[in-house]
Amino acid sequence: MRPKEVRTATVADARTIARLMRAFGAEYDDPPEPGTEERVARFLADPSGGAVLLVGEPAFGLLTLRLRTAI
After folding, report:
1. What predicted TM-score, i.e. pTM, was given to this entire model?
2. pLDDT 10s digits, 5-28
3. Residue 71 within any structural domain of the chain
4. What 3 state SS string does the chain have?
5. Quick check: is 1 in a domain?
6. Which residues of 13-45 are buried (b: 16+ CB within 10 A; e: fewer)?
7. Domain interval for residue 43
8. How many other C-beta atoms lie within 10 A of the C-beta of residue 54?
9. Is residue 37 part of a domain?
10. 40, 11 in Cβ contact below 8 A?
């Protein structure tokens, strides 16, 4: 098995991330909320809140990292 490319998502990836989130929700009969793509774009525009990693080209997986102050 070849290793897959992992990269940090940018605002330009918001549509791809929203598509992956909709596909995940559909698997569990959980319909997407309206405005998912816009919320993802806002999250990506502010890197202090976290990041999204995308796997593959075209992307077929994602990981969301949320950063919060602790201790």
Report:
1. 0.85
2. 999 999 999 999 999 999 999 889
3. no
4. CCCCCEEECCHHHHHHHHHHHHHHHHHCCCCCCCCHHHHHHHHHHCHHHEEEEEECCCCCEEEEEECCCCC
5. no
6. bbebbbebbbeeeeeeeeeeeeebbeebbebbe
7. 6-66
8. 22
9. yes
10. no
